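Format notes (please read before filing issues)

Several people have asked whether sequences and structure tokens are stored in separate files. They are not. Every record keeps both together, in the order shown below: the sequence lines, then the token lines. Line labels are part of the format and must not be stripped during preprocessing.
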Amino acid sequence: MGELIYNGLSVIFGSTMIDSIDSWMTKILDILQNSFAEIFSNDAFHFLQIMAVSLLIINYFWDLSSQASRDMITLEKLVSSLVRLFIGVAILLYLPDLLDHIFKLGAALYHVIHNSAQERTMQNMTIFGQHEWPEYEAEINFNGSKTTAKELIEQAFGKFSITNFISNLYCCLLSLIMMLLCMIAKIAGYLLITSNAVNLIIRAFIAPIGVVNIFDDSSRSSGVRYLKKFAAAALTFAAMSLALWGTSVISENLLASTVADAVGSAEITPDNLKKLFSLGTMVEAAVIQFAGIGALAAVKTIADDAMGA
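Then the structure lines:
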């Protein structure tokens, strides 16, 4: 019973959902790094590179012959088009390195944000005298004595017995609901992160065809736009980490206010712990956490806007 209540509270005060999603994103980035190495050494990718270079050269001579037939070609245009052809071929040949560096820049930005978020603690409220959610059986210092969260929760709700379970059934049901909502939200977060990773892999694999027209219509060419969209997909991971960090910042301040309204102060102790288990308080606290999932769904658009894709 005590561990059930602890797990329900950890969804709100322990950032269980945010930490799980952030951990999943770190794993996905590590997998992507290895996946790119496999993609760029794949024979099918090399075939697409050869095809793209061939299309670029064919397109160049087609355009050149079209201009020559209309007497529009000059020495200046010829030199300029040759330079663009050589640069285009070089970009296609070194495309794996270019894409890899774009991805590494996005991953580096993610790790900067991730590491900054890891250093945050609850400054505006305390839980059993701590500024961070304690582990269930880890030793903590509360009111000058050594104890654990397990013992303090048992002090508030009593040790497990049929009588105590029935009397605390409402609290247990709320904890189960919070854990279920957390699981649903985590699945949604995992899907959003994994779908962006799959999108990035597909874009990397067919990049030679997408980038072949890189010099058509200057900066508005389909090739430049394709690279911008790839960079935006790589940047999306950093934006997702920023969304989770922003959620934790807002959560810290709003939770302190919510707890203060529920128990009379921003200090959670065994004496006032039961007061948190009201439907209004739990819903208000849960909305703060789960709003981060909505932010994850919106960051792709923000990343596209940032890259002009």
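For reference, the curators noted about this record: The chain has a mean pLDDT of 79. Strands lie at 126-127, 139-142, 145-148, 267-268.
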